[in-house]
Design a protein that fits this description.
The protein is of the alpha/beta class. The protein folds into four domains: 5-264, 2-enoyl-CoA Hydratase, Chain A, domain 1 (Alpha-Beta Complex); 299-479, Rossmann fold, CATH 3.40.50.720; 501-584, N-(1-d-carboxylethyl)-l-norvaline Dehydrogenase, domain 2 (Orthogonal Bundle), CATH 1.10.1040.50; 602-687, N-(1-d-carboxylethyl)-l-norvaline Dehydrogenase, domain 2 (Orthogonal Bundle), CATH 1.10.1040. It is built from 30 helices and 19 strands. The two termini are 39 Å apart. The chain binds (S)-3-Hydroxyhexanoyl-CoA. (S)-3-Hydroxyhexanoyl-CoA is lined by residues 22-23, 25, 58, 61-66, 77, 98, 100-102, 105, 124-125, 128, 130, 132-134, 136, 277, 280.
Length: 689
Amino acid sequence: MTQFATSATREGVSLITLDNPPVNALSGGLRAGLQAELDRAFSDPAIGAVVVICAGRTFIAGADITEFGKPWQPPTLPELCRIIEQAPKPVVAATHGTALGGGFELALACHYRIATEAARVGLPEVHLGLLPGAGGTQRVPRIVGAEAALDIITSGRQVKAQEALSLGLVDAVVPEADLAEAALAFARQAVADGEKCARVRDREERIVADRQNPDLFAQFAAANARRFKGFAAPGAIVEAVKAAVELSFDEGLAREAALFEMLVESPQSHAQRHVFFAEREAGKVPDLPADPPLVDIGSVGVIGAGTMGGGITMNFLNAGISVTLVETTQEALDRGMGVIRRNYEATARKGRMTDAQVEQRMALIAPSLDLGALADVDLVIEAVYESMDVKVDIFGRLDGIVRQGAILASNTSFLNLDRIAQATRRPEWVVGLHFFSPANVMRLLEVVRGAATSKTVIATAMKLARRIGKVAVLSGVCDGFIANRLLAPRGAQAEAMMLEGTPIANIDRVLTDYGFAMGHFQMMDLVGLDVIGRDATERTVMGDLVAAGRLGQKRGAGYYEYDDKRRSSVSAITEGLIAEVAAARGVHAKPTTGDTALLARLLYPVVNEGAKILEEGIALRASDIDIAAILGYNWPVYRGGPLFWADQVGLPRIVAEMRALEAEHGEAFRPAPLLTRLADKGASFGQSA
Ligand code: 3H9
C-alpha cells in the first residue's frame, strides 16, 4: 500500500483505488503503487478479479506531463498496460470524470471498462504535440476501426459515455453512485462465467476489414491537410494507426513507441506542453488571497450591440447568464439582435445546437434603449466605439444608475482605463474586460487591472472568464494592453518592408510558413481596411486603398484582388500605389530578401515588445504574453508563443541580429534592457519569472 494506491477485498474481488489529486495523473509513484497492488492481487489465490477505480473528481487524466523529458521511473506506462492485459485474472476499469490519454489507455488494457453516465474518454495527446504512447493507437482501431480511431485520436475530442458505449469503447454505463458496486458485480460475473480475459490486442475483425481499404490513410490525411498544416503529431498518428492495421500488435506497439519518442523530444511538443501549463498558470494572480471574496454574477449588462457587444453577449448567453443589451437606437438594437440570432441559427444548421436551444439563448436577452435598465445587474460591460469622451460620459452616467457592489467593465482595446475609472466615484469597481474579435470565438480575455481596481473585482473577473470558456490574462494599463501592443510592431515592420519594395505576398508567405493562419496583409483585407481606419498623419497605402474603395475581401479587392471563391491574387493597382506612396514619403527601395531575414524583421520586434511588457510589469509572467499572442492573435501554438520561441532561437542570437538591424533600420530594433540582460546572463524568458 502506498499513498497513491490502496486496496480492499470485496467478496473475492480486489478493489484498487488510485488517489493522486487533482486529476490522478500517472506519476511514477502512482504507477509503482498500482503495480504493487496488482502483484498482490494476482498472487493472492483468494482474489478472483480486480477493479481499478479512482478517488476524487476523475479517473486518471493521463500521464504526468511534468515527467516528460525526464528518465521514466519503472514501471513505464506501456509496461503497466502489458502487465494488466496479460493478467491471469479479469481486470475491470471503473471510470468517472475524464479518462484521458494514458488514463484511457490503461483502461483499454483492462479486460472490461465501466463508465458513469457523465464520464468521458479520450486521447488528447495531439494537443500536446504527441500521440498516445501506451497502446492507444493500436487498441482503439481494434475496437472502432481505423476511420473512427483516426477521428478520435487526431481530434483529441472527449467522447461521452453513451457514444463510447455505442462504439464499444466501454462495456457498460452506470449511474454515478453505483460505479464501484457495478464494477465489482461485473468483475464477479466475469469470474463466474469463467471466460478468458477479453484482450483488445486479440481483436482482429476491424483490422482485417480495414486492410481491404489501404487508401483510407492517404485519403484521411488529404481531407484534413488544412487542419493538420504545420503540425507533426497528426501525421505521426496516421502512421501509427496505419501500423495497427498493417502490422502485428507488437510490431505496431513498437512503431507507436518510436513515434512517441520522436515527438516527445520535438520542439513542437515542448512548445505545446509549455502552452498547456501556461494556460493554467495565467489564471493565477499572486497577490490575491487563496479564497478571495467574489461578486456573484447572475446577470450582465452589455452596452453596444455592434460586432463586439454582440459577440460578448453571446458568451454569457452560452453560459446561461441573462444579458440586458443596451443600444441608443431601435435600429441598432434590432440589427444587433438579428446578428446574434443569425449566428445561433447558423450553428443550429450545422447541427451543433437545437432550434430550442437557439430560442432559449435568445430568451436570455433583454434588449433596451435605456441605460436605466442596468440598475440591478451584477456586471456591466461597455462595448461602444473607442472614444475617451464617449466612455467617460457613459461611466459617469453608469455611476448614478448601477447598484453599488456591481462591477463596471470597459472593453476598451487601448484607452487608459484609469481615466475611464475616474469618471466614477467607485474606481475600485472598474476593470477592463478586453475581448478579441470575434468575441464569441476567440478564447483570450485580457482582464485589465486599473490603479484602483479591487482584488474582489480582479478575482471575480478571472473566475468569470473560466465560466464563459475564456482564458484570462491579467494586464496592467498601457496603450494596447498585452496582445495588441505586442503585435503592433509586426504590422509596422510589414508595412515598412512593403514600402521598401518587398512584395507583400512574400511577407505574408513567410508568416504563413511560420504557422500563422494568414499573413499581415491578408488579415487586414479580411478585417476590412475601413474598419481598421487608423488616423494616419501621412499618406499610407491603406488610406489610398480605402479612398479607392478597395476595402478588403468584402469588396473583392484590398491589398489583394479576390475572385468569387475568395482566392487572392497580387494586384497591379496595389503595387502601383505602394510605389507612389513610397516615392511620396521618400522611402528608398531596399527590399529585405531571404525568408530568415524577413521573419527576423517581422518577429524580433514582437519579442522585444514582449520584453518591455514584462519588464514594465504590464504582464505578470513571460508565459502570459505567449498565451495572449496564441489566443488573441492565433500565434501558432506549436511555436509556444513569441517568448517561448525566442528562448528556442536563443536570446544572444536575437540580440546580436537586432543590433545589426538597429544599425540599418533604427530604433525599432534596439534591444530592450531585459532582453539584453537575459542574453548576457545566458538566461531565458522561461527563467525570468
Ligand atoms: C499522455 O497521457 C501520454 C501517454 O499517451 C503516453 C505516455 C507514455 N499531468 O486543467 P485543470 C494539472 S499525455 C500533470 O485546471 P480541469 C494542471 O496543470 C497526457 N498535471 O483542471 C493543473 O495544475 P495546477 C494526456 C496535470 O478540471 C491541475 O492538474 N492527458 C495533468 O479544468 C488541474 O488541471 C491530457 O492531456 C497531467 N496529465 O480539467 C489531459 N492534467 O492546479 C490533460 C492536469 O497546478 N488534462 N494537470 O494549475 C486536462 O485536459 C484537464 O486537466 C482535465 C481537468 C480535463 C483533466
